[in-house]
Amino acid sequence: MGSSTKMKLLFVALLCISSSVFGTEWGDVGDACVDPKAKCVIRAMDDMIANRVAWDNKTAWVAIMEEFFTEDMIYDTNYNPIEDELNNSTGIETWFYQEHIPFNLAFDNVTFNQLIFASEEETATTTTYGKGRWKGDIGTIPGSEQFGAEVTMRIFDFYIMNEDKIFYNWMLLDFVELMYYAGYRVLPKSGLREGWVQAPAAMDGIPAPISRLVDPMDGPNAKNPC
């Protein structure tokens, strides 16, 4: 085999590895991003999370997240009577052990689908739904009893920036919905369709809105409705 052929095979292999690791990015990232600062940073971070890059390698994962979060970042999430799982945490390494790993051990390779991503320069919010299968427990929800069963989850995130990094992330999992998919109905049956997550009905993109097409006065007007 000639050196030229070897180089071509190496190049193809590298492309395959890159595709499998990073998948498809969710829009503009890095220097190509023309959206508000918060959206650019959070989108790049979400790409790493959604594609499960180094998800079970603490050293590598913390190093990746340090590109997007401040050292003293605050991560608030659902209350859990198990003290060292979920709840509120400070610092990337604590977040890794307290939320990131428990989530990935409870669900098998979740596919995330972002529906709304609203952002200004210093703040942002997203709503997302994930699809996957149960493989373990999360909090006090015994997902392991439904091992292999399909699960849908709603996720809500709120962010505050500090300069070019995320300082605060409030993430909420819809635990009532997770309990439903684990076999526990804790609220009366809804008259509306259950387990259905509707994408934005307006032609504003998915996720909506497309920031560069938003009226710049919409934000200030929404904050001063009177």
Structural summary, described in words:
By secondary structure, the chain is an alpha+beta fold. The protein has 6 helices and 6 strands. It has helices at residues 3-22, 37-50, 58-65, 92-106, 175-181, 218-223, and strands spanning 69-76, 88-90, 107-119, 123-134, 150-162, 165-173. A 6-stranded mixed β-sheet has the order 2-1-6-5-4-3. The radius of gyration is 20 Å and the shape is globular.
How is this fold's topology laid out?
Layout: H1 3-22, H2 37-50, H3 58-65, E1 69-76, E2 88-90, H4 92-106, E3 107-119, E4 123-134, E5 150-162, E6 165-173, H5 175-181, H6 218-223
Parallel strand pairs: 1-6
Antiparallel strand pairs: 1-2, 3-4, 4-5, 5-6
- What level of helicity do the residues show? 25-40%
Can you summarize the main beta sheet? 6 strands, mixed
Our estimate of the beta-strand percent is: 25-35%
The number of strands is 6
Number of helices, where a helix is a run of at least 4 consecutive DSSP H or I residues: 6
Distance between the termini: 75 Å
Instruction: Report the uncertain regions.
Output: 7-24
Mean pLDDT over the residues: 88
Shape: globular
Spatial sequence of strands, sheet with the most strands: 2-1-6-5-4-3
- The value of Rg in angstroms is 20 Å
Q: How would you classify the helix and strand content by structural class?
A: alpha+beta
**Series of secondary-structure elements, N-terminal to C-terminal:** HHHEEHEEEEHH
Short synopsis of the structure:
This protein is α+β, with helices and mostly antiparallel strands and 226 residues long.
